[in-house]
Amino acid sequence: MLRPRTILQQMRGAHSATWKKNPELDKIIRVDHAGELGADRIYAGQMAVLGRTAEGPLIQHMWEQEKKHREKFEELICKYRVRPTVMTPLWNVAGFALGAGTALLGKEAAMACTVAVETVIVDHYNDQLRTLMADPNVDKDILDTITKFRDEEQEHHDTGIDHGAEQAPFYKALTEVIKAGCKVAIAISKAV
Asked: Quick one: average pLDDT of 87-115?
């Protein structure tokens, strides 16, 4: 009969990636999970208001990509046994409110919201990529995932610009407030 300690050692050996905790990787996965949840909810809010308009299919396309991003980070949360942020319920509601609220201001404001959020996220992903590439033992799956998602977020940003974001009333003020909110949410999600 195997002793309990021996069984535990065997389990750790079989699942070494999940047992070797990396605090930086934990922060990256936690904050990216929170961000992709927020993005999912923003597009859900936009679809609730603009889903039956000419912009509906465009928003739906971006939302489908965000759903896949969220699913991937939910998978990584489990794989690496990372504690999600305690702010998840708030980000869920706040994301939907931001998406619906800007959509109620018009399609241009919804696109301005997309531009603001994606600007911060692309910069955030670029910072993470620099951090990850400095690690000689970088997890290639996570590096590839973040690179792919960064490129898709840049596509969303560019789509927002191409679809009238800069024509939104008070575009500069609106985007600056949203960017500041995103930066605060990132800082909070890293910590709690």
From this structure: 97
Please check whether residue 59 is in contact with residue 163, taking contact to mean a CB–CB distance below 8 angstroms: no
Burial of residue 173 (CB within 10 Å: 0-12, 13-18, 19+) is exposed
* Confidence class for position 3, pLDDT limits 50, 70, 90: low
Residue 19 has pLDDT above 50, yes or no: no
- Contact call for residues 80 and 25 (beta carbons, < 8 A): yes
Contacts of 87 (CB under 8 A, 6+ apart): 34, 185, 188, 189, 192
Largest CA distance in the chain: 72
Helix (H, G, I), strand (E, B) or coil at 134: coil
DSSP letters for 28-90:
HHHHHHHHHHHHHHHHHHHHHHHTTSTTHHHHHHHHHHHHHHHHHHHHHHHHTTPPPPTTHHH
Tokens 């299919």 correspond to 57
Give residue 21's identity as a one-letter amino acid code.
K
- Closest-CA residue to 153 (of 111, 113, 118): 118
Residues 6+ apart with CB under 8 A from 129: 143, 146, 147, 150
pLDDT at 13 over 60: no
